[in-house]
Amino acid sequence: RAISPNKVGNTQVNYARTVTIEFDSNSRGPFTFKPVKNFLNVHPGEMTEIVYEVTNNLPRAVRAQAIPSYAPKSATEFFTKLECFCFVKQEFQPGEEVEMALRFVVEPDMAEWIKDVSLSYNFYKLDS
User: Fold this and answer.
1) pLDDT tens track for 71-117
2) Which burial class, exposed, middle or buried, applies to 60 when counting CB atoms under 10 A from its CB (0-12, 13-18, 19+)?
3) What is the pTM (predicted TM-score) of this model?
4) How far apart are CA 36 and CA 34, in angstroms?
């Protein structure tokens, strides 16, 4: 069951501004890895959640970790992750399917010219 994006209220939210966050995923290993949505429109200061789905396609356990990157690069310092599957190395059992949450805030002081942010994750199999 997929978790739908959830937005939580905050008194610091800038409702006059909307930023589009595009989600991309790449896998380096035996995984199926993707976000449940390709983009979300968010207001700076608003806590937002997106879920990524990962499946281990091997008949054995595998350790892996996700590494993020941003475009434009200048958005990096204004994209605050509160919870992220990328924070830790994880082990996936044979054939295991997992939903992993990312909770984040786009900081209200991000430059006005940034209207779109691409967040890309590379999901890597770690050496045994």
Assistant:
1) 999 999 999 999 999 999 999 999 999 999 999 999 999 999 999 99
2) exposed
3) 0.84
4) 7
